[in-house]
């Protein structure tokens, strides 16, 4: 179709108006021979424009029409499409929402007829209707075809709004039930001898059990088997296992028609390490003796769906009473909380903000909160015992366990998130819970959810609003430590707190006064001397806790420490008699997660808080002496490194505690005003501690493998922040390894020994332990990850002479010997000095290359969605800006200015100013920004317990960062404004001194 120059065809304009994003392509498709009889029908264009993706729907329609076997079939399809609105809406709705179902229709061109029926029974089919739809399947391939034919109708009802999200999820669960039954029937037919030996029941778990399945999800099951009368139990269980395994393969195996979904039996007792099929008595014995809290939480959704119905019901009847007794377990709530936290912590950092299911404010937050409340209160209220999340939420609201407004908001958010999850998965029928980043995907999803004007903007706005609601309400519902107290009381003894005490705690700023009151009762009740001392301490401690961003956490942590140390004779005496100790402990316990976590692993470290000298960082020589002595006493390499890591944990706590107390100040001592001094103290202490730990680990590895002498001299060279004495609490150890064969030792033997040392050091320092791991990063070595982990001095010299790039010279500016053979370390430093301080400075080409690398890093490495004005490392005026500016000056002038020959950023900055290379004001601006960005990173680690380069999004965590930086409650906005102002000024200096 030709279009006159300077104007668009009317069709082109109409296509744009109807929501097509590629009107030229759509014109070509409409001109296809397949649509010749309907292309001008306005009903077709209107119907296409009503779909989620008109371009996708039109392409799918052309493929479907072209796939018809003959002209008669093609005419039947098009006539029905134009004359029957229900079919038109359903068919085009599916084609515009699901590329995968369009592919199915293209392969099975007659299946469109499944969408023609519009009877009442078709609107809300159940298991029986789906079983009839699968009845003709005789093998795994035909089962997949029949399954997708049923799914086609189900998806059509979903996208057209005939069913809501709750009904759709229930239908998906019913279709899964019918499919499991069909697969089991096939397995039994293939092995009649096995079928004759046993009774087998399939118990649905998870979303299938809860009647709330996704389009693409693992179908979680548990198998129960019994012998038929007269059969040997062992042989019957083996037969049942073969049937269960075959049933799983029928559903899960990849065929020419793809797969249906994985059948996952890992929720069974002992997980994947346990037998696939157990008898009922074996299940009961396991749950009575060994099951963990989360396993009972999972059993909330258990429902028999296939196989022997009597056996399935017997299983549910047997385990159900145990489910509703689990809340009486000690540490029930804290166990559930820890499991939820582990799930969040395991999400890749780059995916957290897009994770629909597991991320903060996601589906799992709603489900965990509801399940916890069910398990706590369902002991005495049978109306709460539903496996379906929204039914359970409604019951909790009806019973007064959840506020009605909160329940309505959670219900609304959950429906939105589940609908969003369904639309994402429906497109390609792939299991995913990530919100896409591609605008075309977001547009299609937004339109499918009724957002037609600005689908991308509206979708993102709605997503953020609903996740924000879930985050807020999840914390209110799930993390209320009040549940701890309720769970630990025997049935019938639940009682309310006095109103006066609650009002007092609310006035102090406690978000959960009920829980706080329970902690107070546990700490101070009774007539013992310990309780009397606690009653003296607590009124003062409550005020100190309230002076933090999270007083609830402070009180909870105090109770934990008191429980761990309450029987020791010195603990309460220390808090009572040493005035500073109690206040210091209150500050440390309520300032964030890191310090309390370190303290809980070794509560006796509380003793450090009673002595001002106890908070001073220990010199490197003392640290190394202690850890080497600990290694010398240990039996074997692993025990030696465990001892070294124990020292590291204690010293990390010492450093954290000193930093927090100096930043907050006490009633007698104001907060330290010199922020740079605090940064230097933390950086130096953590770096010295890391060096001592590496030295101890090296000693342990050598002693374990070679006795007193390694066949090669070996040294560890610190790089990056480690070499600069600028490590933060969560930093990895950037290092290089160098070795030199001893006299008479061959190169190969020496290299093997050196590589074994490196491998063993990395393994031992990363072993799972109660102590924080120390990760060794050697990626700054020659050739990066592709190069050998350890080289000889000659190998380094040859590489740097021939291949070294300017960025490697820049990286070597921070190289410093830290462990191993000191003479070899000095030799390495002498080798690299000409590289990092080149005679006559850098040439113009090298300067341009550094600037090019920096510009590229700014454009490519800043995480998607990150605010460049608040990213401490890569953002405007952040750490990278300051450090690259300083390092360029070192490379250019270090050969003539001795003061620049340092691995430390602030020292080099001061030297540049003293040498007249930087204006005093510019140097102060860069120093202020660098110190502030470093302080923010340290604060994030202290508050959240994990490293981060941006301010937290959580309000309470953000408030805790503000308190650490010296801002009063309610002034986080001022903190962010000040940060932006400081880094904006620094960026202006960088623009002038680095890029010009």
3D architecture notes:
With 996 residues, the chain is mainly α. 61% of the residues lie in helices and 5% in strands. The chain has 45 helices and 10 strands. The strands form 2 sheets. Strands 1, 2, 3, 4 and 5 form a 5-stranded mixed sheet that branches. Strands 6, 7, 8, 9 and 10 form a 5-stranded mixed sheet that branches. Strand 2 (219-227), helix 14 (233-252) and strand 3 form a beta-alpha-beta unit.
Bulk shape: globular
The class by helix and strand makeup works out as: mainly alpha
Strand content: 5-15%
CA(first)-CA(last) distance: 54 Å
Features of this protein?
single chain; 5-stranded mixed sheet; 45 helices; 996 residues; mainly alpha
């Amino acid at each position: 179709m030709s279009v006159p120059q300077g104007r668009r065809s009317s069709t082109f304009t109409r296509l744009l108006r109807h929501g097509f994003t590629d009107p030229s392509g759509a014109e070509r498709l409409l001109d296809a021979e397949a649509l010749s009889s309907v292309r001008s029908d306005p009903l077709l264009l209107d119907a296409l424009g009503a779909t989620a993706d008109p371009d996708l729907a039109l392409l799918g329609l052309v493929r479907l029409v072209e796939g018809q076997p003959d002209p008669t079939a093609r005419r039947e399809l098009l006539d029905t499409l134009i004359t029957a609105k229900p079919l038109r809406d359903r068919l085009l709705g599916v084609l515009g929402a699901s590329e995968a179902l369009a592919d199915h229709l293209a392969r099975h061109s007659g299946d469109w007829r499944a969408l023609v029926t519009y009877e009442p029974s078709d609107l809300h089919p159940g298991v029986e209707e789906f079983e009839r739809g699968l009845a003709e399947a005789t093998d795994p391939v035909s089962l997949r075809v029949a399954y997708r034919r049923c799914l086609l109708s189900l998806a059509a009802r979903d996208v057209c709004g005939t069913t809501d999200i709750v009904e759709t999820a229930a239908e998906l669960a019913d279709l899964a039930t019918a499919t499991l039954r069909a697969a089991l029937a096939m397995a039994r037919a293939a092995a009649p001898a096995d079928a004759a030996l046993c009774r087998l029941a399939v118990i649905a778990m998870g979303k299938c059990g809860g009647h709330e399945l996704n389009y693409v999800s693992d179908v979680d099951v548990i198998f129960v088997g019994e012998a038929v009368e007269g059969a040997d139990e062992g042989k019957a269980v083996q037969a049942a296992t073969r049937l269960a395994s075959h049933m799983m393969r029928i559903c899960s195996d990849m065929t020419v028609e793809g797969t249906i979904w994985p059948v996952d039996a890992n929720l069974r007792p002992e997980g994947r390490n346990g037998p696939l099929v157990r008898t009922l008595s074996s299940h009961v014995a396991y749950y009575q003796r060994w099951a963990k809290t989360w396993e009972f939480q999972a059993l909330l959704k258990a429902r028999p769906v296939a196989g022997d119905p009597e056996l399935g019901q017997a299983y549910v009847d047997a385990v159900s009473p145990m489910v509703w007794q689990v809340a009486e377990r000690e540490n029930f709530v804290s166990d559930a909380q820890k499991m939820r936290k582990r799930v969040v912590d395991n999400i890749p950092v780059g995916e957290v903000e897009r994770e629909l299911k597991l991320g903060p404010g996601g589906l799992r937050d709603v489900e965990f909160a509801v399940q916890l409340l069910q398990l706590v209160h369902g002991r005495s209220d049978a109306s709460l015992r539903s496996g379906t999340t929204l039914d359970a939420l409604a019951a909790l609201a009806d019973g007064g366990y959840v506020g009605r407004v909160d329940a309505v908001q959670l219900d609304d958010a959950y429906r939105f998130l589940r609908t969003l999850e369904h639309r994402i998965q429906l497109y390609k029928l792939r299991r995913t819970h990530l919100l896409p980043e591609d605008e075309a995907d977001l547009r299609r999803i937004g339109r499918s959810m009724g957002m037609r004007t600005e689908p991308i903007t509206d979708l993102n706005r709605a997503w953020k609003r609903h996740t924000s609601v879930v985050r807020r309400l999840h914390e209110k519902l799930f993390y209320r430590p009040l549940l701890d107290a309720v769970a630990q009381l025997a049935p019938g003894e639940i009682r309310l707190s006095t109103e006066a005490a609650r009002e007092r705690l609310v006035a102090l700023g406690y978000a959960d006064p009920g829980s706080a009151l329970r902690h107070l009762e546990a700490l101070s009740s009774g007539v013992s001397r310990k309780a009397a001392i606690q009653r003296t301490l607590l009124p003062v401690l409550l005020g100190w806790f309230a002076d933090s961003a999270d007083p609830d956490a402070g009180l909870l942590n105090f109770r934990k420490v008191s429980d761990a140390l309450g029987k020791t004779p010195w603990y309460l005496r220390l808090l009572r008699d040493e005035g500073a100790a109690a206040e210091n402990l209150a500050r440390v316990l309520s300032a964030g997660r890191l310090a309390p976590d370190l303290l809980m692993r070794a509560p006796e470290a509380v003793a450090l808080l009673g002595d001002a000298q106890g908070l001073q960082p220990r010199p490197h020589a003392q640290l190394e002496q202690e850890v080497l002595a600990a290694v010398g006493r240990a039996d074997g390499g692993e025990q030696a490194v465990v001892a070294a890591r124990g020292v590291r944990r204690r010293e990390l706590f010492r450093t954290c505690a000193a930093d927090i107390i100096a930043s907050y100040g006490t009633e007698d001592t104001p907060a330290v005003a010199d922020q740079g001094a605090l940064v230097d103290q933390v950086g130096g202490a953590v770096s010295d501690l890391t060096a001592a730990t590496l030295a101890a680990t090296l000693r342990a590895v050598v002693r374990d493998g070679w006795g007193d002498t390694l066949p090669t001299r070996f040294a560890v060279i610190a790089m990056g922040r480690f070499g600069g004495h600028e490590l933060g609490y969560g930093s990895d150890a950037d290092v290089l390894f160098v070795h030199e064969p001893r006299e008479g030792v061959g190169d190969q033997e020496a290299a093997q020994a050196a590589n074994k040392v490196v491998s063993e050091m990395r393994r031992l320092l990363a072993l799972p332990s109660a102590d924080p791991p120390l990760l060794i990063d050697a990626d700054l070595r020659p050739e990066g990850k592709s190069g050998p982990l350890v080289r000889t001095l000659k190998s380094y010299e040859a590489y740097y002479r021939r291949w070294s790039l300017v960025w490697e010279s820049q990286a070597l500016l921070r190289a410093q010997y830290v462990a191993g053979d000191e003479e070899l370390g000095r030799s390495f430093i002498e080798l690299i000095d000409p590289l990092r301080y080149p005679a006559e400075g850098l040439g113009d080409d090298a300067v341009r290359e550094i600037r090019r690398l920096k510009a590229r890093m700014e454009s490519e490495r800043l995480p998607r969605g990150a605010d460049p004005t608040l990213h401490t490392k890569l953002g405007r005026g952040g750490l990278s800006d300051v450090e690259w500016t300083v390092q360029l000056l070192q490379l250019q002038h270090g050969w003539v200015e001795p003061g620049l020959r340092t691995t430390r950023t602030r020292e080099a900055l001061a030297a540049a100013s003293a040498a007249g290379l930087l204006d005093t004001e510019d140097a102060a601006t860069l120093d202020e920004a660098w110190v502030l960005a470093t302080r923010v990173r340290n604060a994030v680690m202290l508050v959240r317990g994990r490293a981060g380069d941006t301010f937290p999004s959580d309000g309470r965590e953000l408030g805790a960062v503000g308190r650490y930086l010296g801002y009063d409650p309610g002034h986080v906005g001022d903190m962010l404004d000040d940060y932006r102002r400081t880094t904006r000024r620094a960026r202006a200096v960088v623009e002038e001194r680095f890029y010009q």
